[in-house]
Structures are given as C-alpha cells and as structure tokens.
Amino acid sequence: MGKINSINRRKFLEIFGSCSCGIALVACGTAPITERRQLKLIPEVTLNNQAAQIYKKVKRKTKLSDDKKQLDEIKEIGSKIENAVSSYFDSINQPDPTYNFHWEYILVDNDKVKNAWCMPGGKIAVYTGILKITKNKHGLAAVMGHEIAHAVAKHSVERASRALVLNVGTAALDIFTGGAISNTSRTTGVDVARMLRTFGIDNPFGRKQEAEADYLGLIFSSLAGYDIRESVKIWERMKESNKGQEIPEWQSTHPSSSKRIANLNKWIPEIILKYPPIK
Ligand SMILES: [Zn+2]
User: What does the alpha-carbon distance between residue 20 and residue 5 come to, in Å, rounded to a whole number?
Assistant: First the structure.
C-alpha cells in the first residue's frame, strides 16, 4: 500500500470504516517472485468468474481463425508455460498462483490487431496480427509469457482494487457486481471491445506492472524451454513495423521504449542461468 497517498487512504477508510488494520492486512499481498507489494481488495474468484463469462462472449462474437496448425502451436506453447509455472512454484514450495486457473486459448482472425491478452484465470487470446511480429515459436512464447505473467501476478485484481479505492469511474464496481455483463446482455448487441475495456484488458497496465510482466514473462518462457533472447527482437520488429504509422493497439497497451529493451537485455543473461528449462 506504499503507493496510496493520504487522500486515497482517507477514501479507503471511508469505504472500510474503522477496521482498516484488518482490512489492510487482508488487502495487501505480494506479487510472486518479485515480491512487489500489491493492493488486493476484490476477491480473485470474482474476477475469474467474470472473465470466464466475458471470454465466452468474445468467443461467440469475434471471428476466430480456422488455422488449426497455428492454434495448435499456441496451445502447445501455452501448455508448456502452464506446466513450467506450476512446476516452478512446486519446486520452491510456494502455492501455485495458477492452481484455480482454467486455461483456454483462442486465435482471433484479425490481421490489423497486433495484440494478445490473458484474462484473469488463464483465458488467452492471440490476434493473427501479432504473428507477423512474433514470427516463430520463441517470439510467440515471449508474448504469451508476458501476457500470462499479468494473470499469474494478478495485475487485474490489483488494478480493479485500486480503481475501487480511488473511486475512478464505475469499472471496478461493475466488475465486482457483475454490472458489465448484465448491462451488455440487456442491449441487443454485445460490444466485445467495450467489455474488454471495462474489464481492463485493453487498457495499459501501470509501468511497474508492465516491467513486472516483462520480467516474469522471461522467467516463465525460459522455464518452459524457449529462447528468451527472441523477446528483444520482437520489440525491435515492433518498432520497425510501427514506423510512420499510427500507434497500433499493441503499442498503446504495451508502451514500448528503449528502456524496455534495455531492461530485457539486462535481465536475459541472469534469467537464462537462474531459470533453466524445467524437465
Ligand atoms: Zn503487458
């Protein structure tokens, strides 16, 4: 809770009354591996359930690719990363943050969107547009590792909790009460983009969360047996593909910078040594 200033703390106390000590203890967790302190007010199970429902709608309302070979590759990478994450936490005698995940993968047929995401609880989407950037399985593993890391580190729980405290808009309450879903089902068309936004999937995570997802993503991809040096090449290809164009979705949700590439280069040698492929 170090980030919460006094005004927000007052807001926090207004919401939760005098039992702030107890709440504060319950509400603060730490991210796995990095041990960064996190605010967690909204139960993870609530977010996971909502995510699963939205994911169902995404599957119904978006055009999915019929490229079975490509989808199989995505599933294979995903399952290797799933196993790597679980085995790793077992090996260090810590609870597996994905024990309650129900992993699922889709390939969305949209060449214009250079993006991928992983909803809380392990619901993953890859857009065909990102495949031109990832180019090979190592590149795809780097992107998927990053997205999965957001879910493993429970960044959505953290973001929704912070939104609740800061009282910014109704997005978090919407998620908490199921409003996002009930509202959309009342209208004739289901606006998938709006749902994803409400849920926070298409918004940028904070700078610290992005860096954390980069770091953890490298660890998970390395544990899963992929060549994590490809991650730097992806960001270079991304920069190249963005030249003279509008800022595409991927870049707006995942702010690219030389700092990011510098960080990856700094972390990669250490992570390769410290987190070799899990047998
Ligand atoms: Zn990210």
Answer: 15
